[in-house]
Amino acid sequence: MQDSKEPAPLEDYLRRNPSGLFSELAQLALDRVLARQGEKRIVVVSVKENPYSQGSAMADLRYKLGDTYSYRELDLKTKAEKRTFSMTITAVRENEVVFDTG
């Protein structure tokens, strides 16, 4: 999947397995293939009135060594913060980003 050069097999996999085990990786690979072909990524606009557009995440392909990413885990009922996480990028390779110790 990482070395894909054509979008058709990835699109086919995503059509057959939209919630499959590897669907997120297939979507990332498809985004890369299409970007190489000059296609721009579709950005979902987050609208306050649309709860389905809230909390969406996209893969950031502009990783740099030393970047730090933090996020919070919330209790779904109380919305109270349960814990926080912070990770630092320690290596960036062609098809891999290593956080902390891997």
The gist of it:
This protein is an alpha+beta fold and 102 residues long. 24% of the residues lie in helices and 24% in strands. Helix 1 (7-16) runs antiparallel to helix 2 (23-36).
Provide the fold topology.
Elements: H1 7-16, H2 23-36, E1 68-74, E2 81-93, E3 96-99
Antiparallel strand pairs: 1-2, 2-3
Helix pairs in contact: 1-2
Task: Walk me through what this model shows.
The chain is built from 2 helices and 3 strands. Helix 1 packs antiparallel against helix 2. The chain is of the alpha+beta class and 102 residues long. The protein is globular, with a radius of gyration of 16 Å. The chain has 2 domains: 60 residues, no CATH class; 41 residues, no CATH class.
Q: How helix-rich are the residues, as a percent range?
A: 10-25%
Pattern of helices and strands: HHEEE
Q: What is the C-alpha radius of gyration, as a whole number of Å?
A: 16 Å
Determine the strand fraction and express it as a percent band.
15-25%
How many alpha or pi helices? 2
Total count of strands: 3
Sheet with most strands: strand arrangement: 1-2-3
Terminal residue distance: 21 Å
Defining traits:
102 residues, alpha+beta, three-stranded antiparallel β-sheet, 24% helix
